[in-house]
Write a structure and sequence with these properties.
Blueprint: E1 2-3, E2 11-18, E3 32-34, E4 36-38, E5 46-48, E6 52-53, E7 56-63, E8 65-69, E9 72-83, E10 86-87, E11 101-102, E12 106-108, E13 111-114, E14 119-125, E15 128-132, E16 135-139, E17 153-156, E18 161-165, E19 168-172, E20 179-182, E21 186-190, E22 193-197, E23 228-235, E24 238-242, E25 245-248, E26 252-260, E27 263-267, E28 270-273, E29 279-285, E30 288-292, E31 295-298, E32 301-308, E33 310-315, H1 319-328, H2 335-340, E34 347-350, E35 355-357, E36 361-365, E37 370-373, E38 378-381, E39 385-390, E40 396-399, E41 403-408, E42 416-418, E43 421-423, E44 428-429, E45 451-456, E46 459-461, E47 463-466, E48 474-479, E49 482-485, E50 487-494, E51 498-499, E52 510-514, E53 522-526, E54 531-534, E55 538-545, E56 550-552, E57 559-563, E58 566-567, E59 575-584
Parallel strand pairs: 3-13, 9-14, 12-15, 13-16, 14-17, 15-18, 16-19, 17-20, 18-21, 19-22, 20-23, 21-24, 22-25, 23-26, 24-27, 25-28, 26-29, 27-30, 28-31, 29-32, 30-33, 31-34, 32-35, 33-36, 34-37, 35-38, 36-39, 37-40, 38-41, 39-45, 41-47, 45-48, 46-49, 47-50, 48-53, 49-54, 53-55, 54-56
Antiparallel strand pairs: 1-6, 2-3, 2-7, 4-5, 8-9, 9-10, 11-12, 42-43, 44-51, 50-52, 55-59, 57-58, 57-59
Length: 585
């Protein structure tokens, strides 16, 4: 037996305990990294905690793998460290790598288990490496998923190509991430499963948006949780998930954070959350996110688009699309592997919203994509958007609350400066006054910063509401499409008057009262072959009806229109502008 206490500083001291089956489950009976704990909340160093360790105890002193993120440097420890020359023994804790085969290019059928804090499974920096059928199980808290401190697998550096094939990755702990791609790395995960579960936050942790210290999701996104399944960060990093299963408990499954030129792709994969809240993917900056032929079962959103120039595409895994991505992303799939990829459509099942715009961005849905959501398909929180839905191959939008597109003011109260630190203690307060007319804003014109959506070759059933208070129009274009519902400016009100971290789930949940536009115009363009069946009073600011388009009432009813208070006939080929009100008689 051994009683040990050490620190990870210039050298990383690690306990690997080969214990007898009586001390842990038989399937985890030896080679378990254990004992390390962070010395303080928000710190970087770990200590081997005081205690008695029984069994075949191995103390490994390895060279520290110092990783700097913003203002902090983290002393990484990992079971397997790989660089351009292969496995670096001096930086690896090989006593924690059990079974299988390890070479300088490949680790096959190995098992890595950790019950200590901030221990990484595999770290590859500027090398090419393949993990075949590894089993990685990490229990205990990590520290920073913007660096990967405590993650199961990390690919880092522009020269890195890391292939993870047939992996079984399971973690439980605060920011104990499954997969990280950073610094221009190309990480390819296929035929694998990644599952992460929340841990217990330190008692003295205070929620913050300062990323070096962030250990839980900002509740202002309408979410909770403290671990993501995967994170894509840095400059020009790539992460691709093929025929894989990726689930977080809450927070998020596949995240993109910071950096630029990032590309996140899922092909024929299952992605989502096992808990009530969470997202499938997160797109920020100029990230490109592509979801092809995948099943998303998410708590809150399929994707959060955080802008300012993110691009998101949901579609089918056609042979042409997958082959093109194989070339663009350097996936290394052989002709045989490409031929074996089945063509599938994408299906989203969300317990709350379909997609949430928290920043500007573009979103394209095509192929046979189906989006089922309890609430609005598209939730736009005051952002410039370009939504394109091509229904020619069978796209279907099924919001259970009957709202396809909801525009509201951004209801994020933001962080609060507390003693020089940005803390998540803000409170959203619902406005009680009516918005004042902005005489400089034209609600009848199309502006570059408006919330725009175009629908082509699709039959839609649902409502569209612009509940903005400040100047932003909803611009709807229909091409060879039908829409049945209310399209209107509205007064949007949350269900409660104040929202903070205790009732974060109220964010985005509003009721609409249709009313004349103030600074929230609704511009509807019915192009060739389109028809709008008006199901209730609708307030517009501009209506364009093509020569072969129509505005109709439900069967047995009639629709009438006034423009600036004057009864006006709705005619094919007509254009109308002003305070437009359509009512059903």
């Amino acid at each position: 037996m051994a009683s040990t206490r050490g620190t990870s500083g210039n050298g990383a001291g690690t306990v690997t305990q080969r214990a007898k089956p009586s001390y842990r489950r038989a399937s985890r009976s030896d080679g378990v990294e254990t004992g390390q704990l962070l010395t303080e909340t928000g710190g970087t160093a770990t200590l081997i905690s005081a205690g008695v360790y029984r069994g075949d105890v191995v103390l490994t002193v390895a060279q520290a793998n110092a990783v700097t993120y913003e203002t902090l440097t983290f002393p990484f420890r990992q079971a397997l460290y790989v660089d351009s020359d292969g496995v670096v023994t001096a930086k690896s804790v090989l006593a924690g790598v059990l079974g299988g085969k390890v070479t300088h290019t490949l680790a096959k059928n190995v098992a890595i288990t950790s019950t200590g804090e901030c221990f990484d499974g595999v770290y590859v920096r500027d090398g090419s490496y393949t993990l075949q059928r590894p089993t990685i199980s990490l229990t205990g808290n990590g520290r920073c998923d913007f660096a990967g401190y405590g993650a199961a697998v990390v690919g880092d550096g522009a020269s890195t190509t890391l292939v993870v094939d047939g992996a079984r990755i399971a973690t439980k702990g605060v920011v104990r991430t499954g997969v990280i791609s950073n610094g221009g790395a190309n990480v390819i995960v296929k035929n694998s499963s990644v599952h992460t579960r929340n841990g217990v936050l330190p008692a003295d942790y205070h929620a913050t948006v300062e990323t070096p210290y962030m250990e839980s999701v900002p509740w202002m996104l309408g979410l909770d949780g403290n671990v993501r399944a995967a994170n894509l960060i840095g400059e020009k990093s790539r992460a691709t998930y093929l025929n894989s299963t990726v689930f977080s408990e809450t927070w998020g499954a596949l995240s993109v954070e910071g950096g630029s030129g990032l590309k996140l792709t899922t092909i024929n994969s299952q992605v989502g959350n096992t808990g009530e809240y969470g997202y499938g993917t997160y797109a920020i900056g100029d990230a490109v996110v592509r979801v092809l032929g995948s099943q998303f079962d998410v708590g809150s959103y399929a994707t959060i688009i955080a802008g300012p120039a993110a691009s998101v595409h949901y579609g089918d895994s056609t042979r042409e699309a997958v082959a093109a991505l194989n070339t663009e992303l350097e996936l290394g799939l052989s002709d045989t592997e490409l031929a074996a990829v089945p063509v599938r459509n994408t299906v989203v099942d969300s317990g709350h919203f379909g997609y949430m715009f928290f920043g500007a961005g573009t979103l394209k849905l095509d192929g046979g994509t189906v989006v089922n959501s309890e609430r609005s398909t598209f939730l736009n929180k005051g952002q410039q958007t370009s939504i394109t839905v091509d229904g020619s191959q069978g796209v279907r939008l099924n919001p259970r609350n009957g709202v396809i597109l909801q525009m509201i003011e951004l209801d994020d109260p933001g962080p609060v400066n507390v003693d020089g630190k940005m803390m998540n203690v803000g409170v959203y307060t619902e406005p009680t006054d009516d918005p004042a007319k902005d005489t400089a804003f034209d609600p009848t014109a199309v502006h570059p910063a408006d919330g725009a959506a175009t629908f082509t070759s699709i039959a839609l059933k649902g409502d569209f509401y612009n509940g903005m208070r400040n100047g932003k129009n909803m611009v709807l274009t229909f091409e060879e499409s039908t829409v049945r519902g209310v399209l209107s400016a509205s007064k949007a009100q949350h269900r409660v008057s104040t929202i903070d971290s205790s009732n974060f789930y109220e964010l985005g949940q509003v009721t609409n009262t249709v009313q004349a536009a103030v600074n929230n115009g609704v511009i509807v363009q019915l192009n060739s072959g389109s028809a709008w069946t008006v199901t209730g009073t609708s307030h517009l600011t501009r209506l364009i009806v093509a020569a072969d388009a129509a505005v109709k009432a439900p069967s047995g009813k009639s629709v009438t229109m006034t423009v600036d208070g004057t009864a006006t006939a709705i005619e094919a080929g007509g254009t109308y502008s002003g305070a437009i009100v359509l009512t059903i008689g």
